[in-house]
Amino acid sequence: MTNQHAQPFRPWLLFSFTLLATFVLGSWLHPTGRSLWNSLDKATFLILNGSLTSLQDIPGWSAMWAFTNMRLFDVVAMLMMVSFLWTPGVTFPKSELRAGTVRFVVLLLFLLAVREGFHEVVHVCGWSRSGPSLVYEPCVRLSELYPGLQPKDSSHASFPGDHAAVSMLWAGFTLLTVRNRWSPMVVLLAVFLMLPRLVGGAHSLSDDLVGGAFVTLITLAIAAGTPLLRMVSDRLSEWVDPLIDRVIQLSPLINQASAESTEREPCQRDDAANEHEQRPAA
């Protein structure tokens, strides 16, 4: 398959995303910037985690955050993101849904590679740290309120925020692909998906907005500024598309629906033709 719309190098995007990633990480590494980030981390944690006490009169408030910190909710979050990709007109037109989905899967693999490389740097440089629930007091621990749900509310290696990186990458990919009336909802959903770990205390604000953002921005720099994402996804589509077509052909339900549609369509055309023949000429 020859791609007639190969993505060219876009140096300005490559440079812009890389520069922004460097600035964000640099602001955290500089002593003055680190002091500011630490203050923001503590204040954010005390407000968000403290809401489990201050807003406890709201029915289901703490239970909601306990559920969203479960491993099971990771699957729910991914389904929510994929639903945006698979709804025609929201991110891709109907004709590009399959190719767009493959592109997003490849983008997640890029993110994984960047994340693993950055984790090695974090380990070597000694940037790893414990999450805010193990550092600050007072702290409301969801794992003690709902032990049966086993929510994740602590981490001994919270930097960078991996969940935030995935959410921001999905939002960035969507907004770079298309901007329409669904864009505000994409941003709001990405923010919502970042909140559970912040409320529970497994991650701090800078884990997400510094560590997670750095991984996301470097991944987007490669994806949006170079042809690599399109090249890899197009090659993968060459292998995947025939398999998907084969599955569709072997599916009895799909074949039956297709056959019924084919049988109805000629009848509709015949009726229209007969009606046209029976009409008197003007």
Helix coverage percent:
over 70%
What is the helix tally?
A: 11
Choose one word for the global shape: globular
Beta content? under 5%
Count of folded domains = 2
Mean of all residue-level pLDDT scores: 86
Tally the beta strands: 0
State the end-to-end CA separation: 51 Å
SS-based structural class? mainly alpha
Low-confidence stretches: 265-282
Observed structural traits:
0% strand; 11 helices; disordered C terminus; 73% helix; 282 residues; mainly alpha; globular
Describe this structure in words.
This protein has 282 residues and is an all-alpha fold. The protein folds into 2 domains: 11-226, no CATH class; 240-276. The chain contains 11 helices and no strands. It has helices spanning 11-29, 31-54, 61-68, 71-86, 97-125, 142-145, 162-177, 183-200, 205-225, 228-250, 252-278. The longest helix is centred in the middle third of the chain and has 29 residues, at 97-125. The radius of gyration is 25 Å and the shape is globular.
